[in-house]
Amino acid sequence: MAGQLIKRGDNYTIRVFTGRDRAGRRRYINKTFKGNKKAAQEELTSMLHAQDLGTLIEPTKVTLGEYLDEWLRTAATPRVRARTLDGYKYLVEKYIKPDSGDIRLHKVRPLDIQKLYTALLAKGLSPTTVRHVHRVLRASLNQAVKWRLLPVNPVLAADLPKQRKKEMKAFSADEASVFLEHATDDRWGVLFAVALTTGMRPGEYLGLKWQDVDLDKGTVVVRRTMVAKPKGGWEFAEPKTAQSARTIPLPPTVTRALAENKKAQAAERLKTGPKYTNHDLVFATKTGEPVSQPNLVNRHFKTILASAGLSPNYRLYDLRHSCATLLLAQGEHPKIVSERLGHASVTLTLDTYSHVLPTMQQQAADRLEGVLFGRKGNSSRSSGGGGNHARD
To answer: In CATH, what number does 176-311 get?
Structure first.
């Protein structure tokens, strides 16, 4: 018999046969049901139907917190970068376990997930952080479904908080020129020029090696990114996405500045002698070590902003935004801009820089005006707009 009801006092034990183990012993899923026989029979029928669909799950004593630990060790560790794994672990320990870690895995409901998100928001966390938590839970419980520990993923039925769109900050053309002018005398002036003209992410240009630079062709190739380790130090990692690995042409002025930087670096290396550690970095300290991003921001970027009379609210990452905004505002095709930035798709570029589109639309209208209506001495066709006039 695939399933049976066993009367036990005022309750029923519902038993469903699931097969035999390796030793040949019969295996069952047992469930205690409080109710009358008719209701118990309906529950048994429902369980047998779930068994036919392959969604019948054996209850377990494993908690959500225990499962997440196992998921991190078994599934996440082999597949994600070390920095990403550290982020997952932080979110699990800091935000998921304290509120929901003790719930039995097979009893996690969409309502439990929704309560977790609400509690995190009530503690002052941003919608973005809650979405990061959501991504970890979605991925981990998708794996639980594959491992037949859950019939469905409860996260998929929970609603995410509305994300507040951050205001995009970018230099105007005049501000960009003033910034570069005041950056000329700074040690990292050429770094800022590369950042502003290539649209690379900070980790990408800080991880550039001379082997990635072709001074004859005037190009740089993004092959890696530099990331800070949570406990100190640094390491190279793969680019953010497949599209992030790309070749970027440089303006001639920036190419020449890089050539001068290479000569100055060689002289500095010779002067430092054995204390110089050669990582082949394009941008390195006097001892050859990577540039510290916090130091770059606080001692150089902010100083240049102040001397140029620009807003102190600009971030280092806004050099990337400025590159994209300036190109789009000049009428560059979004596909070209997308490839320069290393975006996964042109849609992402257009969504991110939608604030530039109204200007582009006006430029498009102006071009059509010139092409269609800008000819002189043809008043009969430039007035009225119709093309079906009778001929003599």
So the answer is: 1.10.443.10
